[in-house]
Amino acid sequence: MPDYDPNNIFAKIIRGELPCHKIYEDDRALVFLDIMPRAPGHALVIPKSPARNLLDVNPDDLAHVAKVAQRVARAGMKVFQADGVTVQQFNENAGGQVVFHLHVHVIPRKEGVPMKPPASEKEKPEVLADQAKKLAEAMQSV
Ligand code: AMP
Description:
The chain has helices at about 10-15, 60-80, 125-140; strands spanning about 20-25, 30-35, 45, 85-90, 105-110. The chain is an alpha+beta fold. It has a single domain (about 10-140), classed as HIT-like (HIT family, subunit A). Strands 1-2-3-5-4 form a five-stranded antiparallel β-sheet. A hairpin with a 3-residue loop joins strand 1 and strand 2 (about 30-35). Bound molecules: adenosine monophosphate (AMP). Adenosine monophosphate (AMP) binds next to loops. Adenosine monophosphate binds next to loops.
């Protein structure tokens, strides 16, 4: 497996070199909206420590990411009046991974509404800003 690349796009977001629509942050994790959501409220949960994916992440960081992902799923259910949540996580090119910093997709789902294909459409920044604000508020009570 290749080494971790500190110049991947999510590492730049962690360092504040690129913007994101932030939902939640603590000392070990960051959550923001996917810019090409597969459904409204599609969030990404990442560890702040450098990890390429599930294969090399520190287990304690992985456990923390899972705990935060649970809260993000609950917040998404609430904000989007969702009927369910899809959680996805891809590893290496063959596993469908495109950005090589570990991330967990948390996608609120409505009954009978299919997800859009990956990377099919960029959401408007104002829509993402509004959704991130609502999700950030909901994170405080889940
Ligand atoms: P994957 O590595 O296959 O799990 O997919 C990477 C995900 O990152 C895709 O869903 C992209 O839409 C998303 N993505 C790529 N660049 C950004 C960005 N700058 N901000 C938020 N999400 C992004």
